[in-house]
């Protein structure tokens, strides 16, 4: 994977050890929220504030699916970097998406030399902030924080309000009876059709899960725009991934 100093800095920056998770910490939450968190975090697991993921999958670009390999770091109080190598018609495209300290950017190059995507600015930053907040599903320890508010709709549907620096987002989870995450959704700022930015349905389906270091997280997902509508599968879905490894700090 291409070297990235911001990626390394997010991961290597010193982190104080988190307190061990105690189910009593979430005893005051709605029952569905408790069921999710108690399923996602084993008792005694230190509450992490960062995760490093290794994943493979396919991504849809210009109506064609292409394989990728990627790694990602999420440092909750700072942001994320997702860096990947995508094979397009046999040629490597490398680069990253990121949101760090309030600033988002996308930078991708063909053969590591020819820029094909370079984007930044307020709209990119807002969309990337929404992304890292919905991806808190890979770092469920941050959802134990008192700043996260939960609303139970019924036994298998719960909403949560997540704050990251000055960014606020509302996510919806659907769960099974054991607390396993089935789907996640939100209104995300974006412009998938190139017709101007706006808040659009976004989310995905968790098809499998795995446990890494005391955290049980979705490990196989299908993600995209227009989630929850008839447009999701034919035109909105653009990302399918399998998490191969997750390391927590």
Walk me through what this model shows.
The structure is a single chain. The chain has one domain: Clam (outer membrane lipoprotein receptor (LolB), chain A). The chain contains four helices and 13 strands. It has helices spanning 5-12, 31-40, 122-134, 232-236, and strands spanning 50-61, 64-75, 79-88, 91-100, 103-110, 114-120, 149-154, 157-164, 167-175, 181-190, 198-212, 215-225, 237-248. The chain has a 13-stranded antiparallel sheet. The mean pLDDT is 96.
Write the layout of secondary structure elements.
Layout (H helix, E strand, L loop, with lengths): L4 H8 L18 H10 L9 E12 L2 E12 L3 E10 L2 E10 L2 E8 L3 E7 L1 H13 L14 E6 L2 E8 L2 E9 L5 E10 L7 E15 L2 E11 L6 H5 E12 L1
Antiparallel strand pairs: 1-2, 1-13, 2-3, 3-4, 4-5, 5-6, 7-8, 8-9, 9-10, 10-11, 11-12, 12-13
Q: What's the total number of strands?
A: 13
User: Largest sheet, order of strands side by side?
Assistant: 6-5-4-3-2-1-13-12-11-10-9-8-7
| Residue fraction in strands | over 45%
**Radius of gyration from the CA trace?**
18 Å
The H-level CATH homologous superfamily, spelled out, is Lipoprotein localisation LolA/LolB/LppX
Helix content: 10-25%
At the fold tier of CATH, the topology name is: outer membrane lipoprotein receptor (LolB), chain A
* CATH 2nd-level architecture: Clam
| Uncertain runs | none
Summarize the biggest pleated sheet. Answer: 13 strands, antiparallel
Strand/helix succession: HHEEEEEEHEEEEEEHE
User: Outline, from the CA principal axes?
Assistant: globular
Estimate the mean pLDDT confidence. 96
Q: What is the name of the CATH class?
A: Mainly Beta
- Judged by helices, strands and strand pairing, the structural class is mainly beta
- Return the domain count: 1
